[in-house]
Known about the structure:
The complex is a heterodimer.
Chain A: H1 5-14, E1 23-27, E2 30-34, H2 38-48, E3 59-62, H3 72-88, E4 91-93, H4 100-107, E5 114-117, E6 131-134, H5 137-146, E7 148-152, E8 156-162, H6 171-182, E9 191-195, H7 197-200, H8 204-212, E10 221-223, H9 228-236, E11 256-261, E12 268-270, E13 278-280, H10 281-284, E14 291-295, H11 296-299, H12 302-312, E15 322-326, H13 330-338, H14 341-347, E16 351-352, E17 373-376, E18 392-395, H15 398-407
Parallel strand pairs in A: 2-3, 2-5, 3-4, 5-6, 8-9, 8-11, 9-10, 14-15, 14-17, 15-16, 17-18
Antiparallel strand pairs in A: 1-7, 12-13
Chain B: E1 2-9, H1 16-19, H2 31-35, H3 46-49, E2 55-58, H4 70-78, E3 82-85, H5 90-98, E4 103-105, E5 116-120, E6 125-128, E7 133-136, H6 142-150, H7 153-160
Parallel strand pairs in B: 1-2, 2-3, 3-4
Antiparallel strand pairs in B: 1-5, 5-6, 6-7
Helix pairs in contact in B: 6-7
Bound molecules: iron/sulfur cluster.
Iron/sulfur cluster binds next to helix 4 and helix 11 of chain A.
Amino acid sequence: MSSTLAEKIISEHVGREVKPGEIVVTGVDVTALQDGTGPLAILQLEELGMVQAHKPEKTILFIDHAAPSPRKELSNAHMSLRDFAAKTGAVLSEINEGVCHQRLVESYASPGDILIGADSHTCTSGALAAFSTGMGSTDVGIGIATGKTWLKVPETLRVEITGTFARGVYAKDLILHLIGEIGADGATYMALEFTGPGAKAMTMSERFTLSNMAVEAGAKTGLFASDEATRAWLDEHGREEDFRELEADPNAEYTRTVQIDSGSLDPTVSAPHTVDNTMTAAAAAGTRVHQVFIGTCTNGRIEDLRIAADILRGRQRNPGTRLIVTPASRTVYMQAASEGLLADFAAAGALVTGPGCGACVGVHGGILGDGEVCMATQNRNFQGRLGNAEAFIWLGSPATAAATALAGEIVDPREYLR
Amino acid sequence: MILRGKAWKFGDSISTDHIAPGRYFHLRTNLPELAKHVLEDANPEFASQMAPGDFVVAGRNFGLGSSREHAPRIIKIAGANAVLAQSFARIFFRNSINVGLPVLEIDTSGIEQGDELEVDLGSGTVRNVTRDQTLTFAPLPPVMVKILNDGGLVEHFKKYGDFNLEA
Lengths: 418, 167
Ligand code: SF4
């Protein structure tokens, strides 16, 4: 039988060939909680008398969503994670370390792994050929304690990418375009698999952006085959031994194939309040923007910051537009500091924050006022996402966001490239 | 078992941010308090005016977005009997079963705000008493029926000490 990447990884774990639609109980390699979902998972394990971690060195508790804590209720929630880590030997990722998904791809996820995390964007690690998926607190809590979970083997939707991006067009534009095409429920219950020469040519940073947003089309995970780029990434993060080559079989059966020519794309944005509400940046041009937010697990990596800094360097943000820049992790933060990017942002009038989720989830650090408009590099623009249901969120690439900060209104970033 | 209650109608794409808004992040360890804000950004009157046993009735892709299990939990704590929708987002669907909240995929287009419904989980039918109509829904996969009947995943584990998902 020929298997898709998702089928292959699950088959290896259960020790026989699996087919889409089957329900299996499988071992998991990496489990993760964050500060919004972790306390509830811990409560469930306490109720079960199972305060334990099956694989403590691969159980990571992230304090990233409300980091540092803006109020005492959350400080207490953080204490419950620290306490659980102390009791079980699980790894604690403190307030300075960064967003869970960036930390997972830097240090924990490997090709062929099954990874479950109590955060919907856990699909990000799919770019490393790991079957990684988001679940709720109880599911992940039980995964932590027992080293197991149950899964329905998903059908796979293949995204075949050809062509190369035009100047000013990026992976973010591609994934927004794709979600606009197939819809926010276009891949519900499925795995996405990104293939074709365009996928092969992508940097890891670009792959992470694509995999990160798989869930915005309803998918369980968003997979790439592992290759030399994967190996180089792991090597760069001191984990070359975690590399293995993994790809789908040539005759694997896909439920559906969608083709995208990267070369045909323009800078793309999502309009409020759904991710699939897409249009070109040019079509949205002129929309007044009060806040620009560059960062998150979608676009807070060093490559993203370089793109934004190249546009912002030596220029000033529009006086009517606030600009917030949040590196995704401490590693990214330090790299950006050493390249002088943080100074470039500050000189352009940005507030540069410490690493983490920052403003993304609407807890602190950039909540919008009534009627205000934000252009963000994050992955979702649901009503209320930035802490105010009366506000409006647009999504775009780091280039579109940086150019928008200069113009004070949405623009096609190509006008600002140099 | 037959569940009876009134329909509260919502549209398409009701996200976890509508159900459990991020601005109440600090209430995630205080679910009874968080439940007072359930679905607030979709209908500010729902939490205060619904009666225990009422149904949440929605369009496509209900529960899209975050993995926060708090979303189905507070729908349940608020007292809703079940959620009926054209379709559900995957994580929300699974979380609902895990916390013991019935979720039914069914054609909701003919159900209006305030309609009296009778849901028979066993036979898979929804009777719209107000409109004198009967709808059927596809049964849940056996694994999910098992977890739901046990009262959720925690109760399932209390009972078996492990996954015991054979039908
Ligand atoms: S950066 Fe945003 S999307 Fe990513 S994990 Fe944090 S809150 Fe979620």
